[in-house]
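Troubleshooting entry. The earlier prediction with magnesium ion gave an output that would not parse, so I re-checked the input for stray whitespace and re-submitted. Clean input:
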Amino acid sequence: MDKIVNNKIKLEFLSKGENVALARITVAAFVSQLEITLSELEEIKVAVSEAVSNAILHGYQNKPDEIVTIKGILKGYTLVLEIIDQGVGILDIEKAMEPAYSTDPERTGLGFVFMQSFMDEVKVESQVNHGTKVVLVKKISTDLKNTAVS
Ligand SMILES: Nc1ncnc2c1ncn2[C@@H]1O[C@H](COP(=O)(O)OP(=O)(O)O)[C@@H](O)[C@H]1O
Ligand SMILES: [Mg+2]
């Protein structure tokens, strides 16, 4: 019965706010080839939105003509997402990931907290003035009691 999934996508888009929704929906469609539960799908969508918003707002400081890249890999029930920008980078990654830490006083500083609570693994690689790569890993559960219908 179980379908073995082995698939890959690469998505590139301009660093515009309206593309956050595009990224979220595209990744949701990509993972929907698994019989994923609605709550897991929601968790992935929130994590992607947070990482892509960060790339646009922080990485590119809202410059709208830069490129954000998302790479997605599905192997069996494991989803790996990479959200990549070539923006300003992060000087102190540990500090940036602390709950409620933000370099923008208008923001909550909870983006990484959401990513960490909704995904199984969050890794950040960054170089100042070169950009940031956020790697999100999630094992999709095989409990299909609340299976999404599409
Ligand atoms: N892609 C990125 N490029 C540069 N800085 C980033 C990036 N992602 C996160 N950061 C830094 O990490 C901090 C914490 O991010 P986050 O937890 O999402 O909170 P918030 O976005 O509310 O500030 C940001 O304030 C920013 O300084
Ligand atoms: Mg954020």
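This one parsed fine. Residues 50, 54-55, 58-59, 85, 87-90, 96, 101-104, 107-112, 132 surround adenosine-5'-diphosphate (ligand 1) (CB under 6 Å).
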